[in-house]
Amino acid sequence: MLDTMNVNYDTSIPNNVGLSEDRRILKALERWHPGYLDWWQDMGPEGFQESLVYLRTAVAVDPKGWAKFDYVRMPEYRWGILLAPQEEGRVVPFGEHYGEPAWQEVPGEYRAMLRRLLVIQGDTEPASVEQQRHLGTTAPSLYDMRNLFQVNVEEGRHLWAMVYLLQKYFGSDGREEANGLLQRRSGDADKPRMLGAFNEATPDWLSFFMFTFFTDRDGKMQLEALAQSGFDPLSRTCRFMLTEEAHHMFVGETGVGRTIQRTCEAMNDADITDPTDVEKVRALGVIDMPTLQKKVNLHYTLSLDLFGSEVSTNAANAFNSGLKGRFHETRIDDDHRLLDATYPVLKLVDGKVETVDEPALSALNMRLRDDYANDAGKGVERWNKIIAKTGVDFRIELPHPAFHRHIGEFAGANATPDGEIISEAEWLERRDEWLPSDGDADFIDSLMKPVWEPGQFAGWIAPPKVGIDNHPGDFEYVKIEV
Amino acid sequence: MRIDFQTDPARYRHWRIETDGNLANLIMDVDEKGGLFEGYDLKLNSYDLGVDIELYDAIQRLRFEHPGVKVVVLRSGKERVFCAGANIRMLAGAAHAHKVNFCKFTNETRNAMEDASANSGQKYLCAVTGSCAGGGYELALATDHIILTDDGSSSVSLPEVPLLAVLPGTGGLTRVTDKRKVRRDRADVFCSTEEGVRGGKAVEWRLVDDVVTNSRFEEMVAQRTGELAAASDRPAGENGITLGPLARDFTDNGVTYSAVEVEIDRQSRTATITLAGPQEAAPGSVAEMIAKGDQFWPLRVARELDDAILNIRLNELEVAVIQFKTAGDGAAVIAHDEFLEANAGHWLAREILLNWTRVLKRVDLTSRSLVALIEPGSCFAGTLAEIAFACDRSYMALGAFEGDNRPEATLVLSAANFGRHPMSNGLSRLQTRFLGEPESVMAANTHIGEPLMADTAEALGLVTAAYDDIDWEDEVRIFLEERASFSPDAMTGMEANLRFAGPETMETKVFGRLTAWQNWIFQRPNAVGPDGALGRYGTGRKADFNMDRV
Ligand SMILES: [Fe+2]
Ligand SMILES: [Fe+2]
Questions:
Q1: Which domains does chain A carry?
Q2: What does the pLDDT look like over B20-29, one tens digit per residue?
Q3: What is the fold, at CATH topology level, of the domain defined by B9-230?
């Protein structure tokens, strides 16, 4: 356990922000740090705090420094504060300040807006750790368990990153918000996390993989948009966070991919050609394709909700002020101001799904969501390739954005995964065809038996092609201490 | 399109009343697509005049139809949002006159909530879940007790200044300082912080009364409603009366109600409102009054007058002058006044008297030139005489008019004129009228019940002038023509200044500052110009301010 009274912040907290010379931030961190460690003990991975986990720690931002692997007890993990290197002469890349030098301090008039963006982003980081805290006990292998913990400690580091910005640039309000980030709890009726999807349970490993594929990808898109920010410290922070986020998406994509792989192999071994013969497939102890599709339907749509209303004043303000840009803003060939441009928005008009041109500034959430759908769709196609290779006749599809939505244009509408608007009665009758039912959840749950032997994997998931840090298949990724 | 102020719960699109013993939940659940005009959606429980008309109706019904309801709990029917305040796109698109009249009406409605609590034992509690911003918080401010959920995100705020470059238009600033007595520097921080205040700080700053977690929220609501109910004197076991639809007939140039007639002369820009005195004797008992229900003359005529005034305010913008006339038997009016006075402790009589107080205040606050014409055959007595005292001027016919066999004009005073119906400044209309000569109030008091002829009324200072039939027609015509020729803006400002002599109260401050500051700001390019904050709201573009301080 760290002695938080006598932390040598320069050695115990990897950083490239000159922490030990910054008295203000040191003082703030000294107050916040004990609360963070308490939070990690209370809400971090349950039952494995004493185990040695083979984790990657970022100690510097250069390619050599950000992936140091070693065994570590998670509460002793060295959460660092690392910003991507400062770019010489960087300018605000969009909005009304387009072309002006990027801000190294927060412009007063944007302080509140910027703080809100940071708090919303920051709130998601600890939330997923909380959502995933019970999963260790049912890990399908030590390899997967280690990946889970890697994601968890990095989400913890992302929290640090946001807290650093809040404490460094936002005065006493920022410190208050930093404490608030430790007080809210995923799924808690009294102190819920701020966004819906981060209050949903992550009850099993398939949900975890789907979450990291779909919901962490929302995080990636938000970070991409914030990485464009004219507020340079935010931009630099997010750019570095994105390198870690890529790993989370790798965990999700390969997790689902290996599940698919195993199902298809098992079906072939048993000569089952009809992927919709759920009973037969399930009897093999693997997760059938229709259930995988339903999980995709659920997690994709919950993640679409995270983009907020398609047409949004807040998004317009954040862009125009130069605080939050578009995906790959600097690669887009336009005026980067959007004062006169329009963007097509999918809307529900008189009960029909229609495309309506809206002012591009107000339609930025829609645009980011489109970029997200595109990005997620590529991953889904890689899954379909796995299926195709095994010869099984099935395709996983992303549902229509009108399907199963709680925020935005389609909130409250009843739509099929194809985007056809239906009656409430039909929706209720057919819901279980499209979304996981209690029975589906029970079945998945029945497969969640821990496998803790090095090199061994649960029967519903295939081993990975390569190990972490190029270790062989039987490497002991977690030395479990019970 | 004529804006109609008549509605009933079966037609509500935005509110629900759910009664439960001595408690009522008044639930705001605004239908996004139910805006009064085109061009905006009422998102996030934001409101326009249509939403507020239903609220006004609900508040009236809670008093008359639910005598047993001691506490009204204001709630949101939506998740994560209590109320986002007045709809900004509606405000940005509305004509200035509509905005002002909208604000005035919403203020009157919030005052009606406070009146219910202060005078009729019907307390209001606001149960805030989700964000409560701008007009949403002003709604909360009008209640007796505010409970805010402590979920880490629910907050109260007045974001008008930072977000829209205007002021809260429904008494927000005044109630923060004068009702909740928030320290001025904290109020300054609060009113310039878009996201507002949540959690313990909201209690510490006295912006709300309780902050409590979601799981204990209903328990706290129950506890506080219990405490408020215990302090209420509303009766148990009484049945309310039903406020039925008004009998109305609209024509191109007026409206005919059962006891009120509105005629509009578009040429002279004058509206004449004639009120008919009671045709029947005053009831002999409260049971008889209850049996008459909404047809009981004092209640019926007040409701009709209220509707007539609101109709002129919102739908007849060009009317410069409202002239009030009455017709009937003054003694019958006085008999009704005396009946209500004698039974003022009865819940229904109390509600009828208090309703008259509110309607008369509505007359005071109507920004048209008001004149009472006290003619032969009229019945300006007691409560109806109070209308004359609400007017900017009153002219009384002196003696008999040739060829007119109606009785000579008289003015009769009753208890209704001596403090029963205070103005917003807390004084009676006669006290305000005679601010510099309190002895004149005493003098008038000695004539209670006497039919006063024009010369006496003039001598007592109760009318502006008395004219005989030779002068009457010309004097009245010249007054009306002159009045209609003045700048309507100057008239509005002058009348509002002259009507409310005497002390400031929270109400006069709210209305005074609304007409002065808010309306000024609402006209300025920084708010409504092409590059102003209201016009640019939602576009993502920042307002371009003229930085000169005025
Ligand atoms: Fe993250
Ligand atoms: Fe992540």
A1: 23-479 (1.10.620.20)
A2: 999 999 999 9
A3: 2-enoyl-CoA Hydratase; Chain A, domain 1 (3.90.226)
